[in-house]
Design a protein that fits this description.
Strand content: under 5%
Radius of gyration: 20 Å
Shape: globular
Number of helices: 10
Distance between the termini: 63 Å
Structural class: mainly alpha
Number of domains: 2
Number of strands: 0
CATH topology of the largest domain: Four Helix Bundle (Hemerythrin (Met), subunit A)
Helix content: over 70%
CATH superfamily of the largest domain: nmb1532 protein domain like
Largest sheet: none
Order of helices and strands: HHHHHHHHHH
CATH architecture of the largest domain: Up-down Bundle
Low-confidence stretches: 1-8
Bound molecules: fe (ii) ion
Length: about 240
C-alpha cells in the first residue's frame, strides 16, 4: 500500500460548522461600541461615566467567560488531536487576562478622582489596545484555527462542542449574550441563530414562555423596527 493513498479520514470532506462566527461578531459589536462610548462620554458627567463603566465591567466579565469557554471546550479537544495547535491561542488568552486586571485598575482610577478627564483618557487608550489585540486574536481563530478544527472534527462533533459551551451559560446570562449577538448578526444569521435557540430550549424542556422572555428582553430592545419585524415573521411570532 502506498503511503500516498488517501486514508478514509483524508477522504472526508471538511466540516463546515462555524462555532466562532456568531459569538465573535457579538463581541466585536460590544467592544467597538464601548470603545466609542468611552471616547465620547463627558468626563464631567458623573452618572454618564458610571453607566459606561458599569457596561464595560459587564463586558469584561463576558469576555473573560468567553476565554474560559474556549479553554475548556475547544483548546483541550484540539490539543488531543493536534498537539501544539492551541499553544499560541492560550498565550493570547493569558495576555488578555492580564489586560483585564490592568483595565479594572484603570477603571478604579477613574472612579477615585473628581477630575476624571486624564484618567478616563488613559482608560480609553488602554481599552483601545485590548480591543485591537482581541480583534486580531478572534480573526486568527476564525482564519487559522477554525479550518484546522473543521478538518479534524465532524460537524456533529463541532455542534456538540458548541452545545456544551451553550449549556454552561446560566439562564440569566443568556439575555446579555442575546443583546450583543442579535444586533451583530445579519438577518439570515439572526433568524437561524434564534430558531436554533428555540429548538434547544424545547429539547431541554424549558417552559414555552422562556423563549418569549428572551425575545422581549434580549432581542426586541436591541433591534431596529424593520429588523425586528423580519425576525418575528421568520420565527412566526407576533411582532
Ligand atoms: Fe480565543
Amino acid at each position: 500500500m502506498s503511503y500516498l493513498s488517501p486514508s478514509p479520514v483524508d477522504a472526508r470532506p471538511p466540516a463546515v460548522h462555524d462555532f466562532y462566527g456568531p459569538i465573535h461578531k457579538g463581541l466585536r459589536f460590544a467592544l467597538c461600541g464601548l470603545l466609542t462610548r468611552l471616547g465620547a462620554v463627558d468626563p464631567a458627567d458623573g452618572p454618564a461615566v458610571a453607566a459606561v463603566l458599569a457596561d464595560l465591567r459587564l463586558q469584561l466579565s463576558i469576555s473573560a467567560e468567553h476565554l474560559d469557554h474556549e479553554d475548556e471546550e475547544i483548546h483541550h479537544v484540539l490539543e488531543a488531536r493536534a498537539p501544539g495547535a492551541s499553544r499560541a491561542l492560550a498565550q493570547d488568552h493569558a495576555h488578555h487576562r492580564a489586560s483585564f486586571v490592568a483595565l479594572r485598575a484603570a477603571m478604579a482610577a477613574v472612579e477615585a478622582t473628581e477630575s476624571r478627564g486624564p484618567a478616563l483618557h488613559r482608560l480609553y487608550l488602554a481599552f483601545s489596545r485590548f480591543v485591537a489585540e482581541d480583534l486580531a486574536h478572534m480573526a486568527e481563530e476564525e482564519e487559522v484555527t477554525l479550518p484546522v478544527m473543521q478538518a479534524l472534527f465532524t460537524d456533529e462533533e463541532l455542534l456538540a462542542i458548541e452545545g456544551r459551551i451553550q449549556a454552561g451559560i446560566p439562564p440569566e446570562a443568556l439575555l446579555t449574550y442575546a443583546r450583543i449577538m442579535a444586533p451583530a448578526a445579519h438577518p439570515g444569521e439572526r433568524l437561524a441563530m434564534l430558531a436554533g435557540v428555540r429548538e434547544g430550549m424545547i429539547r431541554e424542556g424549558a417552559p414555552p414562555e422562556a423563549f418569549a422572555v428572551l425575545l422581549a428582553h434580549g432581542v426586541r430592545p436591541v433591534l431596529a423596527d424593520a429588523d425586528w419585524d423580519a425576525l418575528a415573521a421568520g420565527l412566526g411570532v407576533a411582532a
